[in-house]
Amino acid sequence: MEMERKEKCGVAGVVLPAGHAAPLLYYALMALQHRGQESAGIVVHDAGATRAHRGMGLVENVFSPEVLARLTGSRGIGHVRYSTTGGSVIENAQPVLVSSAFGDISLGHNGDIANSRELRESLQAKGWAFLSTTDSEVAVRMLANALAETKDPVRAIRRTMGEWTGSYSLALMIGDTVYAVRDPLGIKPLCYGELPGGGFVAASESVALDILGATFVRDLAPGEILEIGTAGVKSHAPAASKEKAHCQFEYVYFARADSVIDGRHVYDVRMRLGEILAKEAPVSADIVTAVPDSGRTHALGFAQAAGIPFAEGLMKNRYVHRTFIMPGQEHRQVGVKLKLNAVPSVVKGKRVVLVDDSIVRGTTMRRIVQMLRDAGAREVHVRIGSPPIKSPCYLGIDMPTREELVASSKSIPEIAAMIGADSLAYLSEKGLVEAIGIQKRDLCLGCLTGEYPVKIPGEKVRGPQELPA
To answer: Which pTM does this prediction carry?
Structure first.
């Protein structure tokens, strides 16, 4: 990964026939920590009482054994967050919890409701007040209002889904029932499984099921509402739709490589990305190395297809989760070296192929290329396992504005000169689609093409579509 991008977020829900769900939610959130490091939260339900704990920071720092012991209840939901809509403050931590005439409602949200500002302004004009700046609070308050009118949770969820434009996978708890909800285009991933000894778990990625020893059942269908109780799982499927828009960046970068999303092993997709890249952009070199950890699997695929040895030319400090952004070139350089350092004995005198998943601004890649040269690399050829990112994301990825995206204003040769590489090549759009194994019309490629699967003010829509109600 050429720069740290923020993905909103990771969700999980657990229902047990007996016992406490909080410890299982804790482990599920630990498995999803890569999806959000700003805040974490768990809400549980027990004998008519709802208990919650949220905090800023990593899961292991937010939840102590004492805190988990107080979160008694056999069902609950959890959330890890990076901010895309709403700032990084405790008021915006999730799950969001509100009281209603129908009982307590809690919601954890992964994605971005693109029309949340318009919805918020409309509701404020009617006298509604909000405690946070997140689209998730808008969603849960709309849901509570619909629930008061319909008296039916599934109808209320379906009604509010019809008013949202954007991406969302939700872990919901209404009273003592947990619901898992996937947006009508299936932009964000969501799956569920059966726990050993009874019970169920739903989560953003299958790795959360693995850590709990759960048996993977399936991914939720786009637009599906899954009602999870101690008696079992009931599916409320949407009306049939031909439209899908799975986020391509889940496969390229965001999901853990050991996850399975919509029937595809992420590791295998990334290997294939690297293999196709090697065929599309061959280069004479001595070693292939990766920007760890995001580029490793791409680099392994590249090396295997190119017949060039793979070597660990860069080492990552895995004890540095986040670094302060400090002024001045010297401090910025130190910030990069805190996370990455070159191995001179590996790269000295070598022609190096440096593989990563993407380039966003280009500033970090420039420092990494220079780091390899300072360690003695004779040549540095950069290869990127996705097409150039030219447009911002409005659907859950904290991408910079169009002006900050280097590929939106510079050609590939200009970017190569900027980062100081001897050569630069990106994977083609065709190669990306082939590697993922999902038809182009069923992928969201908005950040690559500037055409989005939903209506975004000022942007192009990829084509007319009718979303299921």
So the answer is: 0.91
